[in-house]
């Protein structure tokens, strides 16, 4: 069955009219791109297919420091227990080779208390002369357990006093020297590793904060990229420096694709020594000029661009003297065009106070949406934008003043009407009296 045609032509129907209506451009959210540097400063990079794994073993100390805490503690415990077991076996072998493990001989404690009974001598076919001529490498080492305990006493230098080495066995003296040297090396490496992990510079970087968003606004008649940094501790960072880099995917004129192209971005502090006196939160400003990688970006192009601005803060910790580094990054979604950071430093009773609750707060300011190149080519754009903002500001002030005047006039009019009502209420109202007609007399109305 054929479909019945409509009386209205298709081009004038709703589908046809909707297809011909101008549509606003729709900006779809681009696919979330992996960040090169995370917000907490960690590098988002995975190393794969490394064939020369032996290079990590050539620098064992750095490898141990870079490991996670759970692996470090396992290696720490395993190393000490293994060394104790190894030398316990050495002491047991020394005692076995020397004949100290012979069950026929009593312990040194029995010898100190006196000779054993005659029954014990007869059962072991020993004479009193044999007992007197018997020498030990290590006293009271009769089993592997006692050898293990003696190994711990030697390496940890506990020295309970029950077991001791004698001068009759040169092999035992050699083992003692070897265990002391190896134990000192293990203690130095393991304790140094634990100390370096607890005093790592990234722990100090936890109190170096960055603003959540970066802003682009006009400062000193130039378009500027700005961020805010701060230090939560009272101990300062000596010789603090800030470096900015733009990471983006670029293609050279020869057709070579560079997936991670790092471009240095100069800041205002780079004029002299690039060092900051980070006593209070500071705003780091980058002037977008001809040498800036952001020179051709407008507000519309920034939303669609695929770039990442990396911020690196370096300095020496005042208390420990260790160099620290804090990092963060800003993608295009985290850069606010036409915003400015609010002031957070105030003077209260002779002391400068910093309100960190407003650390990342921004306000909207008048900023032309064009790129810095267009502003350099047409300086009138900035002047016109500022004039429009000034006119709009004046108009808003006029509206506020007129509204205030109208409100005051209304209040005064209401107050005058209320006063008139009060005055009228104070006047006496006229009284009207009616007289009834009498015989032969006309009606008289006396109005008083």
Would you kindly provide a written description of the structure presented here, covering whatever features stand out?
- The protein is an alpha+beta fold and 448 residues long.
- 38% of the residues lie in helices and 21% in strands.
- The protein has helices at residues 14-20, 54-58, 60-66, 69-98, 108-113, 118-123, 128-133, 144-156, 170-198, 201-204, 299-304, 372-377, 380-426; strands at residues 208-210, 214-219, 222-231, 237-251, 257-265, 275-276, 282-287, 307-317, 323-331, 335-337, 339-341, 345-348, 351-354, 362-364, 432-434, 445-447.
Give a quick set of tags describing it.
448 residues; alpha+beta; Helix Hairpins; Immunoglobulin-like; five-stranded mixed sheet; five-stranded antiparallel sheet; 16 strands; disordered N terminus; disordered C terminus
Identify low-pLDDT runs.
1-12, 22-31, 111-123, 128-132, 427-448
Overall number of domains: 2
Determine Rg (CA atoms, Å): 46 Å
Q: Which sheet architecture does the biggest sheet show?
A: 5 strands, mixed
Terminal Cα separation, in Å? 99 Å
Q: Give me the strand/helix succession.
A: HHHHHHHHHHEEEEEEEHEEEEEEEHHEE
CATH hierarchy, class of the largest domain = Mainly Beta
Q: In DSSP terms, counting alpha (H) and pi (I) runs of 4 or more, how many helices?
A: 13
Write the layout of secondary structure elements.
Blueprint: H1 14-20, H2 54-58, H3 60-66, H4 69-98, H5 108-113, H6 118-123, H7 128-133, H8 144-156, H9 170-198, H10 201-204, E1 208-210, E2 214-219, E3 222-231, E4 237-251, E5 257-265, E6 275-276, E7 282-287, H11 299-304, E8 307-317, E9 323-331, E10 335-337, E11 339-341, E12 345-348, E13 351-354, E14 362-364, H12 372-377, H13 380-426, E15 432-434, E16 445-447
Helix pairs in contact: 3-9, 4-8, 4-9, 8-9
């Amino acid at each position: 069955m054929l479909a019945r045609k409509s009386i209205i032509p298709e081009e004038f129907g709703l589908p046809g009219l909707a297809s011909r209506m101008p549509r606003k451009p729709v900006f779809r959210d681009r696919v979330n791109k992996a960040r090169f540097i995370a917000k907490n400063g960690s590098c988002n990079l995975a190393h794969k297919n490394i064939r020369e794994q032996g290079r990590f073993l050539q620098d064992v100390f750095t490898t141990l420091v870079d490991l996670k805490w759970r692996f470090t503690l396992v290696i720490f415990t395993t190393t000490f227990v293994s060394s104790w077991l190894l030398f316990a076996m050495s002491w047991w072998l020394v005692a076995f080779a020397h004949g100290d493990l012979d069950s026929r001989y009593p312990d040194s404690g029995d010898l100190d208390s006196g000779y054993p009974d005659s029954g014990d001598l007869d059962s072991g076919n020993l004479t009193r002369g044999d007992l007197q001529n018997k020498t030990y490498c290590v006293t009271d080492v009769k089993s592997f357990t006692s050898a293990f305990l003696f190994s711990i006493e030697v390496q940890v230098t506990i020295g309970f006093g029950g077991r001791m080495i004698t001068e009759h066995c040169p092999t035992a003296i050699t083992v003692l020297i070897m265990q002391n040297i190896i134990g000192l090396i293990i203690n130095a490496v393991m304790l140094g590793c634990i100390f370096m992990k607890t005093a790592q510079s990234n722990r100090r970087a936890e109190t170096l904060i960055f603003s959540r968003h970066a802003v682009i606004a006009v400062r000193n008649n130039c378009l500027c990229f700005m961020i805010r940094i701060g230090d939560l501790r009272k101990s300062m960072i000596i010789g603090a420096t800030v470096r900015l880099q733009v990471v983006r995917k670029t293609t050279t004129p020869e057709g070579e694709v560079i997936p991670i192209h790092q471009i240095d971005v100069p800041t205002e502090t780079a004029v002299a020594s690039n060092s900051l006196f980070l006593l209070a939160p500071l705003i780091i400003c980058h002037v977008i000029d001809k040498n800036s990688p952001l020179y051709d970006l407008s507000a519309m192009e920034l939303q669609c661009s695929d770039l990442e601005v990396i911020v690196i803060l370096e300095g020496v910790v005042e208390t420990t003297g260790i160099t620290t580094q804090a990092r963060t990054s800003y993608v295009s979604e985290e850069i606010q065009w036409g915003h400015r950071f609010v002031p957070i430093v105030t003077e209260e009773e002779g002391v400068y106070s910093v309100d960190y609750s407003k650390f990342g707060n921004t306000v909207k300011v008048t900023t032309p949406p064009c790129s810095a190149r267009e502003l350099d080519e047409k300086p009138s754009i900035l002047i016109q934008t500022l004039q429009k903002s000034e006119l709009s500001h004046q108009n808003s002030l006029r509206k506020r003043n007129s509204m205030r005047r109208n409100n005051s006039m209304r209040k005064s009019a209401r107050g005058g009407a209320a006063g008139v009502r009060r005055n009228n209420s104070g006047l006496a109202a006229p009284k009207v009296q009616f007289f009834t007609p009498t015989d032969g007399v006309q009606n008289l109305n006396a109005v008083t």
